[in-house]
Amino acid sequence: MDVESFISWGALILSILSMAILAFTLPRIHKQVRQLIEEFAISMLTRRKYRRVKRYILVKFLCIDEEDYNVLSNRIKSSIYSFLGHMLRHKCSIEVISYKQASRRAIIRVRGEAICVTYTLLALSMQHLKNELGSCIAIPIRTSGLISRLRRKYLKA
Question: pLDDT for 43-69, tens place per residue?
Fold first, then answer.
């Protein structure tokens, strides 16, 4: 056996060993790279790109039967959250802060990105299609950044 054939056999054995090592470590590397990509995607989704805003929505309810404040508040929040979906549920915070049973009006506070207000208004306008509020229909009347403006209009009617 001459030196050239010995070198070629050595190179062949070395390349086979490197392929075996690669085949053994490739699933681990793939798993770690996939985890890094998922972490990066989650951090990109949870990163706040926009300033968080707080808006108030004045809503009038047309209900066949009278509703208790707590019952109506829970039904409204669950209806809107089911409409928004999983990702927007974490970005948008919705809370019924006051309800006047005589005029059947409520003030809903929406906190989150500016798009949250749009999605909440859309959910309030379309919730009768899913019929989650039962016999109630919510009609958004006005949106404002200050609760005092809505309270003035809210207390008049």
Answer: 666 665 556 788 998 888 877 565 677
pLDDT one-digit tens code per residue, 85-121: 777 777 888 888 888 877 888 888 998 887 888 888 8
Among residues 75, 88, 153, 146, the alpha carbon closest in space to that of 116 is found at: 88
Domains: count for the chain: 2
Q: How far apart are CA 140 and CA 18, in angstroms?
A: 67
Question: Please, is 40 exposed, middle or buried when counting C-beta atoms within 10 Å of its C-beta (0-12, 13-18, 19+)?
Answer: exposed
Residues 95 and 145 in one domain: yes
| Domain final residue, candidates 9, 31, 47 | 47
Helix (H, G, I), strand (E, B) or coil at 144: strand
Q: Considering the entire predicted model, what is its pTM? A: 0.60
Question: What is the spatial order of strands in the sheet that 105-112 belongs to?
Answer: 93-100, 105-112, 53-63, 136-144
CATH number of the domain enclosing 58: 3.30.70.3250
- Nearest to 79, CA basis, from 53, 101, 59, 50: 59
Domain that holds residue 11: 1-47
